[in-house]
Specification:
CATH architecture: Alpha-Beta Complex
Shape: globular
Oligomer: single chain
Distance between the termini: 14 Å
Number of domains: 1
CATH class: Alpha Beta
Number of helices: 5
Number of strands: 7
Largest sheet: 7 strands, mixed
CATH topology: Maf protein
Strand order of the largest sheet: 2-1-3-4-5-6-7
Radius of gyration: 17 Å
Length: 197
């Protein structure tokens, strides 16, 4: 089975992506920093999810000489002109916690009736020779004023889907099927045999 490195330092993402990839029956074995593999920090200075995702995948694939998958994702809120966007993890500052980011999000939306938002994820797969492929997933929802749910991470407790009458944090199993990350990984799964040849 082909080993593929998952380039993220976010342990929640590692767990979620491994679960999704197992369900998709991709014939690959994901390895990550959880397996003791040390990688350099990649400066995410791109202007789009695509640029950041591609940069991470390409640099780590070359460094490890291993096929690498990376993810760049975030929350884009209509009333905030698409913010926090690519700055979702550091919306409230460079070393912001999840609580800091969520607090800033809710304060930024005070008194605003348009709560529409979408989660975007771009998954990139890169080969050590620099060749790369990217896949984008999006899911639409609304931002609640109060958090709901104990599961998930990041903005999940505030991201509400009317179809399910739940936030991502209230439906972890369904999230794995329908999230922005699941959609992007499913697109990758349809092409992976062709890509890996």
């Amino acid at each position: 089975m082909l080993k593929v490195f998952l380039a993220t330092g976010n342990k929640n993402k590692i767990i979620e992506m491994k679960d999704i990839i197992e369900k998709l029956n991709l014939n690959i074995k994901l390895v990550s920093i959880n397996d003791g593999i040390v990688i350099p920090e990649v400066i995410e200075d791109g202007k789009t999810f695509e640029e950041n995702s591609q940069k991470k995948a390409i640099e780590i694939a070359k460094f490890l000489n291993m096929i690498t998958i990376s993810d760049d994702s975030g929350l884009c809120v209509d009333a905030l002109n698409g913010e926090p966007g690519i700055y979702s993890a550091r919306f409230a500052g460079e070393n912001a916690t999840t609580e800091d980011n969520n607090k800033k999000l809710i304060e930024s939306l005070k008194g605003i009736s348009n709560r529409k938002a979408k989660f975007i994820c771009v998954i990139s797969l890169a080969k050590p020779n620099g060749e790369y492929f990217s896949f984008r997933g999006e899911v639409n929802g609304d931002i609640l004023e109060e958090e709901r749910g104990e599961n998930g991470f990041g903005y999940d407790p505030f991201f509400y889907l009317s179809k399910y009458n739940k936030t991502f944090a209230e439906m972890p199993e369904i999230k794995k099927e329908i999230s922005h990350r699941a959609i992007a990984l499913e697109k990758l799964s349809k092409e992976i045999e062709k890509i890996l040849g």
